[in-house]
Structures are given as C-alpha cells and as structure tokens.
Amino acid sequence: MTSEITLSVASSGADAIDADALVLGVYSSSEGASLAPSFLSAQTVEGLEAVLEDLGISGAADQVYRLPGVEDSAAKIVVLTGLGERSEDAATRANALRYGVGSAARQLAGCENIVVSVPTEDVDDVAAVAEGIAFGAFTDSQLKEKSAEKVKAPVSSAVIITDVETDAASSALERALILGEAVHHTRVLVNTPPSHLYPETFAQQAIERVKDLDDVSVRVFEPEELEAEGFGGIMGVGKGSSRGPRFVEVKYAPQDASTSVALVGKGITFDSGGLSIKPGAAMMTMKCDMAGAASVLNAVAAVAELGLPIGATAYLCLAENMPSGTATRPEDVLTMRGGTTVEVLNTDAEGRLVMADGLAYASEQNFDVILDVATLTGAQMIALGTRTSAVMGDDAIRQQIVDAAEAAGEDFWPMPLPAHLRPALDSQVADLKNIGSRFGGMLSAGIFLKEFVGSTDEGQIPWAHLDIASPAFNEESAFGFTPKEGTGQSVPTLVKFLETRAGN
Length: 504
Ligand code: BES
Ligand code: MN
Ligand code: ZN
Hints:
Blueprint (H helix, E strand, L loop, with lengths): L5 E5 L10 E8 L5 E2 L6 H14 L8 E5 L8 E9 L4 H18 L5 E5 L5 H14 L20 E5 L4 H26 L7 H12 L5 E6 L1 H6 L3 H7 L7 E7 L7 E12 L8 H4 L7 H16 L4 E11 L11 E3 L5 E3 L7 H13 L5 E6 L3 H7 L4 E5 L1 H14 L3 E3 L17 E2 L7 H10 L4 E2 L2 E2 L2 E5 L5 E2 L10 E2 L4 H11 L3
Parallel strand pairs: 1-7, 2-5, 2-6, 6-7, 10-11, 10-14, 13-17, 14-20, 15-16
Antiparallel strand pairs: 2-3, 4-5, 8-9, 9-11, 12-13, 15-20, 18-19, 21-22
Bound molecules: ligand BES, manganese (II) ion and zinc ion.
Zinc ion binds next to strand 10.
C-alpha cells in the first residue's frame, strides 16, 4: 500500500548527510546543459558539467541519470534530473521543480534516503520540491501476494537543502505530506479492481479514511434510502448490478468556517456501459470510473487534516454500471432527485445520471459553491489529450480552478458550455435525454449537468464541472511524479482551490 515518507529541510551540513543519493537539477538550453545551483563547490560543479554532453544529459524533463558520488557529499551516488529550460516565471519554475524532483523520487524507488539540492528561491519552491517527492515516492502492490518483494520500495526519507526560513519551510513540508497522502489514497482506490472495490466497499473505505479526523462526519445512503429519497439516477444506473449503489456524504464542518463548498464525485466502480455495452477494449480501464469520487473524498480529508477554516463536503455517487435482466434499458425514463425526468437513450452515458442526483442533492444544502469531478466523457480525451483535464461552468469559478491548477502544478483547461448544444438534449417523452449532439460530447455532458445545479434568490449556485476522464488514469509509461494507472489528478487543484477560498 502507500508508504510513509519523512521529509525535512537543512540549510547547512549538506555535505555530511549520509544518504543513498544526492539529487541535483540540470537545466537545458540552446548552449547545452548546465547544473542548477546547489550546495556543491564550483570545482565539483565544473567536473560534473564537463561530462554532461558526453553522457547524453540534456536537462530534458524526465531524464534521470545516476553517477558515482562526489567529494563534496557523503551520499553514495549523484542523481541528475532534468528541469527543462530555466523560466523567468516563478510558477513555471516551481512546477518544473515539482515535476523534475518528482520524476527522480519516482525513479529512485529502491533507494531509502535521498538528499535534494535544487534552487529554492522561496517557500513556494520548497513546497513544490516537497510535493514532487511526496507524489513521486509511491508504489502500489496491494494485490501482489507472491511477487510483492519484486516491487522496489519507494524512497522513504528526503532532506531538502534550502536557505528558506525553517518555520515556513516546515509547514510547507507538512502540507506536502498531507497532500501526498491524499494523492496516494486516491491512486490506490482507482487502482483497486472492481472485484474488490464496489459501492459498498467504497463506502467503507470512505468511513475508514476520515474516521480519526476532527469535524468530519459521514453518512451513507443505502439503496432503500436512495429509492425512498428519489435518487432515480443513481438507482437507475445501479439497477443492473448485483451490488447495490450507495451515496456517501463526507462532511467537514469546522466551527470557524465562513463559507462552504460541495464537491460531487462520479463513483462508477466499473463502467461496462450497461446494456449499451462497451467493446472489450474500451472496458479495459473502466475501473477508473470512480476517480472523481476518490478525488473529492481525499480533497475533503486533506482539507480537514490541514484544519482549513472552510466547510467542504464530498458527495460520492457510487454505482456499478452492468447489463442484466434488471438493468435500465435504452428508452427507459428515470425520475431524478428533484423531479426532473430523463430518457436514457444510451446506458453508457451513466456518469451524468448519477451526478445529476448528486448535484441536485448538494444544491438543497446551502453551499456557496458546487464543484463536480468526473471521468465523464471519452470526448475529453479526444479534445485535450491524456494529461489535460477540462473545466466548464461559471466563468469566475472556472477561472479559479484554472488558477488553482496552475499553482498546484496540474493541467486544467477552460472549455465552454455553448447554448446551441442545449436543444439537442430535449426529449420527446421526458424533460431531457441523456445524450445530445454527436459533436462536442464533453460540452453536452457539462450542459446536461448544469440542468441539475440549483438556484437561490441570487441565481444559479456558482458551479464548475471538472472532466478528468483521461488524466485520472495513466495508461502509458510513468512520467514526472505520475505513476502508471491511477494518478490522483485533481486532488492538488481541489485543495488549492479550497485553500484560496478559505483565505489561506
Ligand atoms: N466512463 C466513460 C467515459 C470515459 C471514457 C472515461 C474513457 C475514461 C476514459 C463514460 O461513462 C462514457 O462511457 N461516456 C460515453 C458517453 C456517450 C455514450 C455519450 C463516451 O464518452 O463515449
Ligand atoms: Mn459510460
Ligand atoms: Zn462512465
């Protein structure tokens, strides 16, 4: 499972630290690679720089090279990690540190202790380095019974060499550990196969995750309660499975909260498509279809651990989408929470059905902002590729998510909800149908969700929709601090968004 990591900072005595590896940065430029500033002497730096070109070290991101140790350091080996071209922009520099140091931490699995000496100009840089280490030092062998020992253990302790003032640096480390744990837990949930993770066990995991946290309460809605309370979307999607659906409320409500945010997460523990069944190959990654629910659970847990003065409630919309004699049929009409009727024309567009109930329920609870996070559409991957998530919704909230993502080192891109796509969701028989125009599929899904965001006297509740379909699950090679399979993407952005709203 996830591992505990120890992080610390030091401003002197770096040479004497007896670590397995000393991690240094390398910048790339048109004139060739150069070492980023570190505690090493000019002479040692000169010696290392003299061999960079011959070793094929360019300073490109994800290039991690191991060399013999140097005289200035008691560490056994030197590790050079690419930071790309040095930027004049502070946020870009911090993100390069997070990514580059994270890549080294990930690739150094098998080493116990590392020392990291890269340029940190301020506490944001220290935070980025610490987060890179925390996110990168991860392996998941939860179901390896006979081969677990073949998996190299992640780095277990790191000392960051910096001149940044120790108190500020220490709180950045503490935050990085909390964030790291939230990201790790999200990845492990996403990785857990549908044989092991289904609505009931996911609900148990949620209870377990927050059981020791102050000001956090959990309420699990069982199928009977969902039926009685009008959660027609979650019930309708869950109907085909032998494992009943659940709706879980994880509420962090500190005394000093002056504002509160709801986070609604898509928790389809397996998406077969239902009767509109997916081809085999398309089903292959569909254990990841609960990543939104895992992210919102962990964002709320992190915010509670940080003790932020803001209310934050996660709503997990949990169901397994399966075909069977009891499954919802194409052309069935469901009555959602709040009374809106939806004609289901494609049972594979199930995410929006469970999210509709979650959004409607959250809208009844007086939140100042509602966010939703979902692996909602294949169209997200077509539009933005595998690493960039989409954010739609109100202009202001959408921009706040983009800004939070930039500060957190994640890729979120603003997308529109064009009004002309709305009529395609009109149904002959019900209020709405669950599929719209063939083009702009990601946007149609967002427009569908918007129908379920409630209003107050001041108009519709401020809302944004995050489609993380592809970035939530890495089918390709590991990169930066990101492993294969579950990535934890969106957790750092959500936490940053909540911190900003809390005034931190
Ligand atoms: N869970 C999928 C979306 C998805 C696809 C997530 C690939 C991650 C990777 C979602 O439930 C789905 O099947 N969406 C359909 C919607 C369509 C039927 C309107 C899609 O995108 O094809
Ligand atoms: Mn689907
Ligand atoms: Zn789905």
